[in-house]
Specification:
alpha+beta; Nucleoside Triphosphate Pyrophosphohydrolase; eight-stranded mixed beta sheet; NUDIX hydrolase
């Protein structure tokens, strides 16, 4: 990848019974929402569903597309993340890894306090509003 090439990523806000699934990333010691880079020629939608499953064990369907995010990543590359609200179809259980070692179902109020990044908190609010 060229230094100026934008990193493409996708993720989701998984919702169930008025709660949101958040993940703990041990490398960063933070609570966040599941997301990751696209693999090869996969679409953003495919990547969002795959990443949410890999990082949470949840099989979901896409809901409304949420606000995307653009920033410079830790390697100094431009990065764009597309996000979706998601509805859970099945739970295969979390398999802890070096990327994600815990997941929690939290209320929107708890998410406001626990999530490390304001953009994640904004996405939770947006996802909840998209369901009404």
């Amino acid at each position: 990848m060229l230094a100026s090439e934008t990193v493409r990523a996708a993720g989701g806000v998984a919702l169930r019974h008025g709660k949101v699934c958040i993940i703990h990333r041990p490398d960063y010691e933070d609570w966040s929402l599941p997301k990751g880079k696209l693999d090869g020629s996969e679409s953003h939608e495919e990547a969002a569903l795959r990443e949410v499953h890999e990082e949470t064990g949840l099989r979901c369907v896409l809901g409304a597309e949420l606000s995307s995010q653009e920033y410079i990543d830790r390697q100094g590359r431009p990065k764009t993340v597309r996000w979706w609200a998601m509805t859970v179809l099945a739970d295969d259980g979390l398999t802890p890894s070096h990327e994600v070692d815990d997941r929690r179902w939290v209320t929107p109020e708890q998410a406001e306090r626990i999530l490390a990044y304001e953009h994640d908190r904004e996405l939770v609010r947006e996802a909840l509003a998209s369901q009404t």
